[in-house]
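Is this the right way to post structure tokens for a design question? Let me know if I should format differently. Anyway, here goes:
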């Protein structure tokens, strides 16, 4: 049985919102990371090679992940329990 988005519970809508944002973020990161595969600076030094483009991709990935974790922690009953037991 299909249920419209507006008729879903808040927790279900939040779950779908997070999934959609996650997919969009993954696509953006892959698109931005693809040119890094052919970057000569990163190819020359696999461990310590750094370029502005690589730093931007890391910043975008981190800037997405940290707020998403905070959002999930605030709205998930299970995450609230784990936060009480193991604070970040």
């Amino acid at each position: 049985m299909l249920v419209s988005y507006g008729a879903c519970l808040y927790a279900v809508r939040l779950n779908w919102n997070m999934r959609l944002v996650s997919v969009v973020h993954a696509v953006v990161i892959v698109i931005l990371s693809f040119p890094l595969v052919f970057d000569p600076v990163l190819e020359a030094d696999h461990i310590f090679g750094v370029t502005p483009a690589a730093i931007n991709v890391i910043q975008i990935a981190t800037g997405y992940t940290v707020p998403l974790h905070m959002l999930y922690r605030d709205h998930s009953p299970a995450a609230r329990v784990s936060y009480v037991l193991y604070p970040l």
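Format looks fine. Someone answered above. Worth noting: The first helix runs from residue 10 to 33. Confidence is low (pLDDT under 50) at residues 80-88.
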